[in-house]
Automatic annotation (TrEMBL):
<dbReference type="InterPro" id="IPR047662">
    <property type="entry name" value="SemiSWEET"/>
</dbReference>
<keyword id="KW-1133">Transmembrane helix</keyword>
<feature type="transmembrane region" description="Helical">
    <location>
        <begin position="12"/>
        <end position="29"/>
    </location>
</feature>
<keyword id="KW-0812">Transmembrane</keyword>
<feature type="transmembrane region" description="Helical">
    <location>
        <begin position="41"/>
        <end position="60"/>
    </location>
</feature>
<feature type="transmembrane region" description="Helical">
    <location>
        <begin position="66"/>
        <end position="85"/>
    </location>
</feature>
<keyword id="KW-0472">Membrane</keyword>
<dbReference type="Pfam" id="PF04193">
    <property type="entry name" value="PQ-loop"/>
</dbReference>
<dbReference type="GO" id="GO:0051119">
    <property type="term" value="F:sugar transmembrane transporter activity"/>
</dbReference>
<protein>
    <recommendedName>
        <fullName>Glutathione synthetase</fullName>
    </recommendedName>
</protein>
<dbReference type="InterPro" id="IPR006603">
    <property type="entry name" value="PQ-loop_rpt"/>
</dbReference>
<dbReference type="GO" id="GO:0016020">
    <property type="term" value="C:membrane"/>
</dbReference>
Length: 90
């Protein structure tokens, strides 16, 4: 099966949407409760840095699915990381 470029782009947007919005429930719970005891500081630090690098990569290669998904995911992950640093224990 050979896909057309626009079909490949749609797969990218679908993947971006699903993986990005998977963070929304965690972010909402974190913002509301300020309870981040189950969140690993090391994991979120590495994850946030990695997403930031994916964002930079997307900008360099000018691929909108990567740019949009990683910009949103970076903002969500960074907000959770900031909350974790601000409220280390509840």
């Amino acid at each position: 099966m050979i896909l057309e470029p626009h079909q490949i782009e749609l797969i990218g947007y679908a993947a971006a949407f699903l993986t990005t919005f998977a963070f929304v429930p965690q972010a909402i719970v974190s913002w509301r409760t300020r309870d981040l005891s189950g969140v690993s500081l090391g994991m979120y630090s590495l994850f946030t840095f990695g997403v930031g690098l994916w964002l930079i990569y997307g900008l360099i290669i000018e691929k909108w699915p990567l740019i949009l998904a990683n910009a949103i995911t970076f903002a969500l992950a960074l907000s959770i990381l900031v909350l974790k640093l601000r409220y280390p224990r509840k």
